Structure formats: C-alpha cells, structure tokens
C-alpha cells in the first residue's frame, strides 16, 4: 500500500492518530479543570508507567484540554542534575503569554512578570547552562516576592501569583512536568510543598507530572503527605479492544481494513504497548499489498519492525550504558526470563555475577540515573522499557 498514506506514528511522544484507551484519564482531567476553575478543591495529577506506554502523549493531550479552555499552560522536561527553578520560570512565562493577550490590566501582568523575573534570577550562571531562555529583560525584577532562595517558599508564592492572574479571567494555570522522576529529591520535596500550600488556598493552579513507575514512591519519600496530595494514574498497556482501535480507526480513514487474524497477530507481537502498536502497524502497512491487511502481512513485516525497535528503541538505550552497567542488565535479563521481566532481587543479580551487592551499587545507581532501570521496592530492580529483557536475551542467540 501507499507508504505516503501510512497513518501510524511510532515517534517518541508523538501523538498517534487515535488516542485509544485513554478516555477515562481524559474525562477525569476535564472534571479537574472544571472544578478548579470553579474554585472547588481538587488534587493535581501524576501519571506513571513504563517507557513506551504513552505517558508523554497523554500529558500533551491533557495540556491540549487545558488550552482549549483558555488556561495558561507551560511544560517542563526534567533532566538529571538540572535544577528546576529556571525551567519552571520558563514554563510559567509561556503560560503568562497565553493569558496576557486577554488580560485587561497590563499593570497586573507586568507585576507578575516582575515576580517571575525575581524568581528566575535566583539561579546561578552554572544552572543556566544549556538553557536558551532568559528572564524578560524589559521588566524590572520585583523585590520580596518569590526571591528568598528557598525553593519551596518561592515556588508557592510564584504559583499563587500566577493563579491569581488567571483567576481574573475565570481560568487557571497548569504546569506539565515530564520525566518528573529526574527532579532531584530536595527539589521534588520543594515542589510537593508548594503544591500542598496552593491546594490549601484553593487557587486555580494544577501540576500534572509524568514519570517512571517508581515516581509515586519518590514523591511519598519526599513528603509524607504526597500520597494524598496527588491523584495517581498508572498508565499501562492497552486492552485488546483499545489496541485494535488504535490500528483500525486510522486505517479506516484510508478505506483500509484488517482481518481478525491480522489483529490477533498484531496483539500477540505488540502485547498492547502503544509504541509497539504504532511501530508494527506502520511496518505492516508498508508491506501489505492491499486491503484487508492479513496475518501473513504481519508476519512479513515483523522482522522489519523488530529491527527498527532493536536500533531505535532498545539499542539506543543499551549503548548509553557502561560495560559494567551492561553486565548488570544482562544478569537482570537472565534472571527475568523466569519472572516475566518484572522485579528482580538485587541480591540475586549479585549472586549470578559472583559479586557482593555493595560492589554493584555504582552500576545499579548509574542505570537508575540513566532511566534504564527503576526500583519500586527496596532490594529489587526492573527495566523501565517493556520487553527489554527479551531484547537482551535475543542478542546472545
């Protein structure tokens, strides 16, 4: 079939043509936006799950909902070792621009921008490296507001002022934070503290975070009340019905159908993971001679899809690891063959390598920092990427 008409989108964070299986999360967030704008209490939101399940796609979809309601929005992508003060300032500056064009009181807008600039200027030159954005030059920095140097206090005051600016327009402000698990623990605690403060004031401000499966654990460790502060949503693989919809709805726009056996074959190879659904759907479309797409087309396309995943999805991550870290992951994969690649005891990894657990801590910690493994429970590790154990085991055959 015509590859130009191929409707599938296996890109990182790229929205698929059909956002299947996320209706419940979308409806929940619509309620949050309406309640917060109406001045009713509501919790911020945290999405967690493995890589490839569509957390970033869902995060962006929720942001689109806020934009459709004329909220001010901004997005932060957290990174290891990078302080969040300036990225948060940048996100709120973007949110302010969305509000400023509709706000009648230019002086109020300028006052907030002054507070934003004061908040941003508490960063060091070192902390600004790698960021092109700078505070607005044409606005003088305010004094005595969000500039104490105490991140929790400064965030709370900045969020409060941003929310009050939005409330003048009967809307709110929402900040979306991707890769939230990469925020340093002290800053994560400060963010939780600020969210706790604004939630008590019932101002129209929402934080939506997304991260790996251990993010709820990190939040709970940073502040004891974090368990009650956020609404936690586990983003997982798609049901069979949703996975079929992700394939068939885009195809129908091009007058193409799938045979039942083709859908069965695709579900078997993708296991319902959204990224895999898009990757195998795209490869299958490209090899299929016509409609309806058959199970034979899936079988012909599978090696091509698997080859692309081996390079771009699995291989690129494996290459980031050091030799010691790769050895650790291979041991995890061998142990995971009997455990479905779920949590693997770190003691068993050490035993399989003939090493003391303490000597493997640097490799384990390095893998966690690189986002290749996570630890949801003390003494265990698991891959952040679905089917990563299968990939590593296949490299030995």
Structural class: alpha/beta
What does the oligomeric state look like here? single chain
Rg of Cα set: 23 Å
Adjacency order of strands in the biggest sheet: 2-3-4-1-5
Kindly state the percentage of residues in helix: 40-55%
DSSP helix count?
16
For the secondary structure, the number of strands is: 8
Second rung of CATH, namely the architecture of the largest domain = 3-Layer(aba) Sandwich
**CATH structural class of the largest domain:** Alpha Beta
Q: Strand-residue fraction?
A: 5-15%
Overall morphology: globular
In the CATH hierarchy, the third-tier topology of the largest domain is known as Rossmann fold
User: Which sheet architecture does the biggest sheet show?
Assistant: 5 strands, parallel
Distance from first to last alpha carbon: 34 Å
Topology readout:
Blueprint: H1 23-37, E1 44-48, H2 55-68, E2 72-77, H3 85-100, H4 106-120, H5 151-167, E3 173-178, H6 185-201, E4 205-211, H7 215-222, H8 226-229, E5 230-234, H9 240-252, H10 260-270, H11 274-287, H12 295-319, H13 323-336, E6 344-345, H14 346-353, H15 361-369, E7 373-374, E8 380-383, H16 388-394
Helix pairs in contact: 1-2, 3-4, 3-5, 4-5, 5-6, 6-7, 10-11, 10-12, 11-12, 13-14, 13-16
């Amino acid at each position: 079939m015509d590859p130009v008409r191929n409707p599938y989108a296996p890109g990182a964070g790229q929205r698929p043509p059909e956002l299947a299986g996320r209706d419940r999360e979308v409806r929940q967030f619509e309620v949050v936006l309406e309640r917060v704008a109406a001045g009713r209490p509501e919790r911020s939101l945290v999405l967690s799950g493995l890589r490839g399940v569509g957390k970033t796609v869902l995060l962006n979809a929720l942001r689109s909902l806020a934009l459709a309601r004329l909220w001010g929005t901004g997005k932060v992508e957290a990174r290891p070792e990078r302080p969040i003060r300036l990225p948060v300032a940048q996100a709120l500056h973007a949110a302010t621009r969305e509000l400023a064009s509709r706000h009648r009181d230019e002086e109020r807008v300028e006052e907030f921008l002054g507070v934003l600039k004061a908040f941003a200027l508490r960063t060091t030159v070192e902390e600004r490296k790698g960021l092109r954005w700078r505070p607005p030059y044409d606005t003088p920095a305010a004094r005595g507001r969000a500039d104490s140097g105490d991140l929790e206090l400064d965030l709370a005051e900045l969020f409060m002022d941003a929310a009050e600016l939005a409330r003048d327009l009967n809307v709110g402000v929402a900040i979306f934070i991707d890769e939230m698990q990469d925020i340093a623990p002290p800053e994560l605690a400060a963010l939780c503290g600020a969210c706790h403060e604004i939630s008590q004031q019932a101002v129209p401000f929402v934080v939506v975070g997304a991260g790996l499966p251990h993010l709820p654990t990190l939040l709970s460790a940073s502040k004891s009340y974090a368990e009650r502060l956020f609404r936690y949503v586990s983003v997982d693989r798609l049901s069979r019905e949703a996975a079929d919809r992700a394939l068939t709805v885009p195809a129908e726009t091009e007058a193409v159908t799938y045979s039942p056996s083709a859908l069965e074959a695709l579900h078997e190879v993708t296991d319902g993971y959204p990224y895999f659904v898009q990757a195998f759907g795209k490869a299958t479309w490209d090899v299929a001679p016509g409609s309806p797409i058959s199970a034979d087309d899936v079988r012909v396309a599978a090696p091509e899809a698997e080859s692309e995943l081996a390079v771009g999805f699995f291989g690129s991550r494996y290459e980031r690891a050091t030799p010691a870290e790769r050895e650790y992951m291979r041991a995890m994969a061998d142990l995971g063959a009997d455990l479905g690649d779920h949590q693997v005891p770190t003691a068993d990894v050490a035993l399989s390598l003939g090493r003391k657990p303490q000597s493997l801590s640097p490799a384990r910690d390095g893998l966690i920092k690189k986002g290749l493994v996570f630890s949801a429970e003390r003494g265990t590790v698991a891959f952040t990427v679905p089917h990563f154990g299968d990939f590593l085991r296949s490299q030995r055959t």
